[in-house]
Amino acid sequence: MLAYLEHFVHEKDAESRQDDEVASLSRALELQASIDELGPTGIASKDFGGIKSVKPLAMIRPSSAVDVARVVKAAAASPSLTVAARGNGHSVNGQAMAEKGLVLDMRALEEPFEIVWIEGTAYLDVSGGALWEDVLKRCVSEVGLAPRSWTDYLGLTVGGTLSYAGVSGQTFRYGPQTSNVTELEVVTGKGETLCCSLTQNSELFFGALGGLGQLGIITRARVVLQKAPDMVRWIRVVYSEFEEYAGDAELLVEEVEECFDYVEGFVLVNSDDPGNGWPTVRLDPEQVFDPIHIPSTAGPVLYCLELGLHYGNADDPSGGRVDMANLADVRVPTLPQIAKNPSFSGISKCQLLYHPLNTDVDRLLRRLRFIPGLKFQTDVSYTEFLLRVKRVEEHAKASGTWDAPHPWLNLFVSKSDIVDFDREVFKKILKDGVDGPILVYPLLRTKYVTINCTISWSSIENHKLFIVMVVPSYSLLLRTLSHPHLLPPRCIRPTLGVLLQSVVVPDSDIFYIVALLRFSPPPPKGPPPELLVAQNNEIIQFCTTRGLDFKLYFPHYHSREDWMKHFGKQWTRFVERKANFDPMAILAPGQRIFSRTS
Ligand code: FAD
């Protein structure tokens, strides 16, 4: 089979008898999968960014992890073939492409989709090619459960977002999506199919999370679930001063216990421009954004804090809500009871806190310094809330901006530099907007760290008990250690081995995600994409020359020096992991970090 593949590759280089050879490749690989979509018009040569296009050799639709492993092994046996897993192709710089290589359409991998219960916590075992929107719909409708951490838009695959981080308004509480999986099945660059977790093949586990697809192809992920709320109170409040906006947003995300369930925010142009300005704030067409409330001191841009509070209609018809955060976080063994019994009977009252919704919202909003008169709110179902960007997609498809080029820029900027960034970038370079959302909201660095915590506990009788705990953050570890019902703190001698995911973020404890989500119409109606790329570069240049503590999210670089700078002190470990799991650099060539070797 392998000799045949090499022959095939040489033939392909001569661009002859393409159709026959693709069929032969399928036979040679003994795949259950199908092979198709060759050429520059096929989806494998395109992505959401619409700026890069390269021609692969073939696109393969694997039906199982076995197919994925066969393809990788075959590529490894050839002199130069590479393999790119393609999730939903929502990259913007060709990261899921493979020039003259094999593209795996991961959406074809439908299984597994299975709820598993382990020691009182529910998990979803799901295919790396599943779309998050399908995960949401099936989990909520079939078992009333849902993942804790999301992205804003859910037309992305599980493996695609886990290869970066997966960030949204829940990240301040639960960490990115990469901090909410406990096990992966990965096909490495050697074609081995390995199960990995905190305690098994942990270098691969942490390396693959945020690993830009470099170490392996995620064929299955085990995602932590919690009870899905019924409803979300969705609120937007507007600020004219960045310092007040940022101060309030930081206050909210730091007080995880006493906070909304969702915290995000965006910049808007201080104008009635329908794409960039005031009309983007209302949550209901009936609501009015009255500019009379804007102080005369306001600058060229305003800031909108976007908040969400979960509640359950069915549980408390009077409009009260159950505070689930503690239960879900420390994973006390009542979670399955809660999931199976929506009325919560049989669960001790002291574990459930009932709050009237409006009192909660008022209490949380009272501390914030937004412009009085510029508060908007609505109530939507949990599913509708999480699918809110689907409506944007439909609108953009109708207007032609979904299929236009998207020169997006995503950055993480540290708290200490965000005021500088606001002054130069939001208020000057982007004062006219970007024809789409400009997100800016704080995240906590501790939520990106996963801890391997082995606690050795000596009892009075001098018996030793070893417990391995999986906790997604330092703060949760500290809370768990001091939890009176779990472990008596004075007896604990914790030894911590901190293992980092591959996700790269600034050093500061709080940093902001800044996302320029451009939806300009294609030229000649809109600006040429090159102009927008140049504006992105101007912003990166500003951050670099001013020495800001920042990192690119969805990084794309062309030189090894830039990649080394990006990874910083994580570079050596990343290179070692690459050498261990994909020594010939077969995987994810579109990231342009390593070159294929024989
Ligand atoms: P692809 O673009 O197909 O692949 C991305 C990279 O991952 C490639 O290198 C690919 O080879 C690799 N890869 C794909 N699947 C696998 C796998 N199974 N195993 C290993 N490697 C794999 N991101 C956020 O964090 N938060 C958001 O709110 C958010 N919103 C977005 C909204 C829109 C409209 C768009 C277009 C993007 C958004 N993103 C967001 C960015 C998104 O997370 C990334 O673009 C992500 O890569 C898209 O996933 P995908 O499934 O399309 O991956």
Automatic annotation (TrEMBL):
- Per the record, the domain of life is Eukaryota
Q: Which UniProt keywords apply?
A: FAD, Flavoprotein, Oxidoreductase
Tell me where in this chain the FAD-binding PCMH-type domain is found.
52-228
* Keyword flag Flavoprotein: yes
What's the catalysed reaction?
N(6)-dimethylallyladenine + A + H2O = 3-methyl-2-butenal + adenine + AH2
GO molecular function per UniProt = cytokinin dehydrogenase activity; FAD binding
Against PROSITE patterns, the record matches this protein to:
FAD_PCMH
- EC class of the enzyme, as a word: oxidoreductase
Q: Which PANTHER family match?
A: CYTOKININ DEHYDROGENASE 7 (PTHR13878:SF112), GULONOLACTONE OXIDASE (PTHR13878)
- Please identify the protein, giving its name as recorded: cytokinin dehydrogenase
- Source organism of this protein record: Vigna mungo
Species lineage, top-down?
Eukaryota, Viridiplantae, Streptophyta, Embryophyta, Tracheophyta
